[in-house]
Design brief:
Length: 126
């Protein structure tokens, strides 16, 4: 069972920045899309951002547009999520996921992803 590995979560104050990283264990993932999802307390899992391994095309949730930035490092098989101007409502467990399909359609749907990390907690305090 292939598992991704997130890192970089923590406790920060509103307005701070944080960087999450996701290590992809094999170059077999050098295609398709990588996504970040989050699970806020008491809510359902929601889409945050996605990026295509090949062309770098990105998608963002409206709630994070302009504050979060997703990137990929194809040489080192890593995907990062740079988060700035964090808000209380960004508090959640953040998950990295891999979808071995290049299509843009469907990549905001967590059910379309096959491989997942264990999650990393991000807590934003006032």
């Amino acid at each position: 069972q292939v598992q991704l590995a997130e890192s970089g979560g923590g406790l920060v104050q509103a307005g701070d920045s944080l960087r999450l990283s996701c290590a992809v264990p094999t170059r077999a993932f050098g295609r398709g899309n990588m996504g970040w999802f989050r699970l806020p307390p008491g809510k359902e899992r929601e889409f945050v951002a996605a990026i295509n391994w090949g062309n770098g095309n990105t998608d963002y949730a409206h709630s994070v547009q302009g504050r979060f930035f997703i990137s990929r490092d194809t040489a080192n098989n890593k995907v990062a999520l740079n988060m700035s101007n964090l808000k209380l409502e960004d508090t959640a467990v953040y998950y990295c996921a891999a979808r071995l399909v290049d299509a843009v359609v469907g990549r905001k749907d967590w059910r379309q992803y096959t491989y997942w990390g264990q999650g990393t907690q991000v807590t934003v305090s006032s």
